[in-house]
Amino acid sequence: MPETNSSVQSAEDAPEERISLAREILPAKPRHPMETLLKNGAGALLKVGDMVEGIFMERRGTRIFFDLGPLGTGIVYGREYYAAQELIKDLKPGDRIAGKVIELDNDDGYRELSLQQAGRERRWIDLKRMMDEGVILELPVRKANTGGLIIEYLGVEGFLPASQLAAKHYPRVDGGEKEKILQELQKLVDTSLRVKILDLDPAENKLIFSERRVENEAMREAIARYKKGDIVEGEITGVVDFGAFVRLDDTGIEGLIHLSEIDWLLVENPRERFKLHDRVRAKIIDIQGDKISLSLKHLKDDPWLAAAHAYHKGDVVSGKVIKLNPFGAFVQVGDSLQGLIHVSEFGNEEKLRRELAVGEEYQFTILLWDPENHKMSLGPTQKQ
Question: CATH classification of 134-216, choosing from 1.10.10.10, 3.40.720.10, 2.40.50.140, 2.40.110.10?
Fold first, then answer.
């Protein structure tokens, strides 16, 4: 019997050993470098849509190549090449630029990139960082509408709602007439405002600015200079149904004189007391956050305390009716006190209005006298 080659016989008897032997005898099939990267190392984690940074290497006609380090070589060509003209026109070898992966491994083994999409996403990434860090931006106002202002930054058109304007720019328009609001907002077009990014949504291409956020920081620092009880001076910057706004001289921040703080007597129309740019002295009666409450009446002696022992429950006093309401009548007693006679003292509003007339004087009986809390309840001296 002829002698048998033990190696061959072994390979025939054991399939695993035969495969191992074939690997030693046959040359290995060349593996594409991209295949190696995808199976081993950083390239395995890369996916379409990822942002990468590359170093510009060269331009070959309408193709440009980037070194992506361990991620391989990036290429921009075709439609993406023409879309990126503004971004690549000044590129020099060694320059770094961001790209977005749109194809992991094309037929030539390159990563296909979009510089235009990356530029767009990079803008939103930068905008998000600025929002998170509270960066203050000084930006020009491009146009206005009834809701606010249009501001552009990094090629993205953003919106500054009127509600987010600083106090000095807020359109105080009685009745909220849209045309008047628009007229006030249009005065800000072509001016520059210091703003922060309030909110954004790249998917909806939404970018919202706030001027108030910048103002609030400065305001907190400015308000720290004041305390309750301080006497301040300033200029009337707005008069509305519920009071008047005053810009304080020392810091330029605004305080409010509420309708009830104008005088110890009833004031119905602040416009009869104030005009824009009037100069006033006022007392700070409260500070809550970024709100300063002012008072004119507290610059005067409190007439209620001065009259504490002048009146008593049951006294009959002379008073002038200054206002009629469904719930009763306001009555001025003396020079600076105000009492209320409730409608129940007459049975109903119709009878009250029949018995009392604004501007007329009558005799009343004091039913409640509480000067400490500024309360005086009155009744008719006899049933009407």
Answer: 2.40.50.140
Q: Check residue 116 and give left, alpha or beta (phi > 0: left; psi -120 to 50: alpha).
A: alpha
Cα-Cα-Cα-Cα torsion 355, 358, 361, 364, nearest 10 degrees, comes to: 60
Q: Residue 162 is which amino acid? A: A
pTM above 0.90, yes or no: no
- Residue 26 DSSP class: S
33-59 pLDDT, tens per residue?
444 444 445 555 788 888 888 898 998
Instruction: Note the pLDDT tens digit of each residue in 301-334.
Output: 889 988 889 999 999 999 999 999 899 999 999 8
> What is the number of alpha carbons within 13 Å of residue 350 lying toward its C-beta?
0
Residue whose token pair is 């296909």: 112
Q: How far apart are CA 58 and CA 88, in angstroms?
A: 11
Closest CA to 52 of 35, 33, 63, 68: 68
What are the structure tokens assigned to 193, written together?
């405002």
Cα–Cα separations (whole angstroms), residue 91 to 46, 58, 64, 85, 94: 25, 10, 10, 10, 9
